[in-house]
Amino acid sequence: MSVRVRFAPSPTGPLHLGNARIAVINRLFAQKEGGRLILRLEDTDEARFDPAAEALIDRDMEWLGIHPDEGPGIGGAFGPYRQSERHEIYTQTADRLLAEGLAYRCFCSDETLADERKRAVAAGKPPRYSGRCRSLTDGEIASRAGEPFTVRFRADFTEIRIRDLIHREIAFGSDAFGDFVIMRTDGSAVFIFSSAVDDCLMGITHVIRGEDHLPNTPRQVLIHRALGIAPPVFAHVPLLVTESGDKIKKREGGFDIETLIERGYVPEGIFAYLAAVGNPAVTGKRILSQDQIAQSFDITRLGRSAVKIEPEKITRMNTLAVRQIPADDLASRLVPFLRSQGYDTDRIGRPSLALFADAVRDNISTLADATAFAPIFFSEIPPIDDASRHILAQDESRRVLTALLTGIDGVTEFTDEAFHSAIRATADETGIDGRPLFAPIRAALTGMEHGPALEKIAEAVGMEVIKGRIRNALRLSS
């Protein structure tokens, strides 16, 4: 069977960077190996289940450019792909294990189990189940009909060795755990069981997940063996953690995809960042496409230590990504942010938006950053900040602007050549060059000390607007 991997989030909220990274790694691995990515929703935790979360997960994955080959709403030969719709499968599988003597009913109460754990800890032993219900006869079980029970798996093994693409070979001894619960008293499946059963029945060949799931692995290997299906190859990815070293939580610290979208990050930058964490082949001066990243992707090179989020690197890679987006595409992405600031983008029109996008791309790190420059392009006279007013108050600045206005007074249509010629003529006439020349021009045209290239601003707003702004600056400095 060809490579089949799965991304199995719990629908309890939007994706955060930690689980989004697992989705990215699964997608890249499947792409590199010519395999399939399955989206499976592990939605049986009723206490944490959020009905809106499935749509959020779909949106976040779509935004990142991760398109599963099978899953809810997509279909496939191994569905259903929501665990909440697979209850009968888990019940039938547990009944099979009971019939084959590989599992048994446990009638121990919570109080009994808590007491066992307490006594084990007091004796310096691991808190594992004693096995008191392991040998109940059929008659004893029948006599307790109607009593609540769990189903426990018989964990009979000496040692379990697993192959892990990141951690290499890992061994678990028989003292790691005792008989474990696979079905609760309410008849629902425990995560360890449902996940392993689904991996078996969906033909998953590689389980790529966070290393926080490593303790679950030997139990799931035993379930695979009991069902007569070879365990998958595992890859337990070191966690992406906060700057303080803590595990990322949903909606914490702005590290979820929803917040990043709101702040104007672009999917190309975030995907590249998540692919680059622990993967030096992705890091560079250009943002690679998903196909290019997949070609060089090697899961064995991800390293074995947790990696801290680097907000500066996220921003840096997003900046590179923004600069690579074609102007027309970038203009479309900027529309929601401009509208949020009250700009009528329909009135502005596509050609002007494209000029704006092209002009600001080298001065922004996120889409939201572009709104700071919008008044330069979409107002007759942009606001003038204090630093620019200080520049305009200088006698030297007035000389520069007076000479420049004279030089362009007869020009009605902007061209690069005409604008450059007027600036050079101003330098020759005033004997002023460098920052003393360009600072007052920028202050007059933009109201800011720093910003997009003057030539692109002039091209976007036109020569008549440029003249009006220079006249306004001269009035302010008089």
Your description of this structure?
With 478 residues, the protein is mainly alpha-helical. Among the domains are: 1-71 and 195-324, HUPs (Rossmann fold); 386-477, Orthogonal Bundle (Arc Repressor Mutant, subunit A), CATH 1.10.10. The chain is 47% helix and 10% strand. The strands form five sheets. It has a three-stranded antiparallel β-sheet with strand order 3-4-7. Strands 1-2 form a two-stranded parallel ribbon. A two-stranded antiparallel ribbon has the order 5-6. Helix 1 crosses helix 10, helix 17 (395-408) crosses helix 18 (416-430) and helix 17 runs antiparallel to helix 21. The longest helix is centred in the first third of the chain and has 17 residues, at 17-33. The radius of gyration is 32 Å and the shape is elongated.
The count of DSSP E runs of length 2 or more, i.e. the number of strands, is 11
Show unreliable segments.
Answer: none
Overall 3D form: elongated
Under CATH, the topology of the domain at 1-71 and 195-324 can be stated as: Rossmann fold
Tell me the distance between the termini: 80 Å
CATH class of the domain at 1-71 and 195-324: Alpha Beta
- Structural class based on helices, strands and sheet pairing: mainly alpha
Q: Provide the gyration radius in Å.
A: 32 Å
Widest sheet, order of strands:
3-4-7
Q: What is the averaged pLDDT score?
A: 93
Work out the strand percent.
5-15%
What is the helix tally? Answer: 21
